[in-house]
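Pair request: fold both.
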Amino acid sequence: MEEIFFIQNYYYYLTAFICLLTFLSFSGYLSNKLPHRFITVTVILFALFTAFYIGGRSSNIGTDTPRYEQAFRFYESAQRFIIRKDVFYDLLSYSFSRLLGFQELLVFCASIYILGALYSFRKIFKNDFYLPFIVFLISPYFFTSGINVMRSGVAASLFLVGLGVYYDKRKLAKTVFWFLGSVFFHISMVVPLLFFVIARYLKNTKIIFVCWLFSILLGILNINVIQAVVESLGIFESRVGDYAVNEGERNFWVNFGIFGVIPVVFAVFNVLFLKYRDDFYIWLLNGYMLTHIPYIILLNSQFALRLGYLAEFMMPILLVFPLVISPKIVLRFKNLKIMVVLLVVFLIKAYKILII
């Protein structure tokens, strides 16, 4: 229950924050000028608050937090640096064990997780960056990746920074630097990296979409073709193997229907039917769907939520991009309308926790 109340308290703050941004969007249209500077300051302050809120949690909050603390204590007593799992995180944990404390490590990781994503959205969306940031905060993965699988959350934000740098400057060297940084922080990020490389050459969105639909059929029939691939490769079995073969008690089809299907169908509709032509967005969509396929096949796995995050951490960009950057359908008062929709979606998603 402690974790639920921890999330509930944050949801109260988040509700007030979203309402404030909705009001600012409304007042901006009344005055024919959005208060971009005030919105920017407000969003940055809330992002810092969120980082300290998540990073300031106790060790009892989050399934994996005790494991992170155990690894931290290991390095406190270690005589030298030892790579246990992920090079960058292990080095970070070792450094903090020598200089500061475990709480400071949590705050630092939470800061990268929140501010890294915010930086990426700023690079891509400029003054509209707060729209994908709200999507990021209300997504079903936000707290899971912030307090349970913190390393993969931080790694995903580093990957987002890479996407932001590439979109803003098209500097491939810096993009590769951030992508590799995300992989060394958590090895699972090699999955989206691999599929994004493939998407640079496999550019037929229609074919990829058909494969994505076919993977849904495999998931429904519970045909686990990935297990055979993992067994034949014989690598990463300590992590990927469990993901591929473990049957979970929970079923994530409802979550996939809302947060998995809708973003992809929306994006495909823009690209294939509205003929939305942006090379970056098409690359993102193709890489997103390819990364999504293993998750869909393994939806009956107990690690489905963690696998889903390997693609769906990019959902804020996928959803908001065609609405605000050279949109095919121009909406009047678009920022206000998007904020109202996000507020409604969040309240529907969070009402059970808010009324406890």
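--- second member of the pair ---
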Amino acid sequence: MRPMELIAACQMFLVPAAILFGALALAGTQPLKALVSLLGLATSGIWFYRLWFWPGLSLIDRNTVLALAGVFAVAWCAAFVSNAVIWFRERRPRRSSVLQRAA
């Protein structure tokens, strides 16, 4: 396994992940942010899967690239969950309390 092949494989996933992080910052609505986060999570999952089954990787290279892919996957998962929760909270009307209705 040549190191340049591994670097090219990582760049193949790092570039879309970086573009998606920019798209997440520019997204104006919560549904769009949740969708961008879901796309980022899928990209990181595919990256993790591809590197997991990469033939001929040394142990240190495998651990390094899987840690990098895992960090991105955890970040995208956290972004998706938080944006989805905010989106669903915005959709649900708030119930007024008994004291507010009485006043």
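Observation on the second member. The mean pLDDT is 85.
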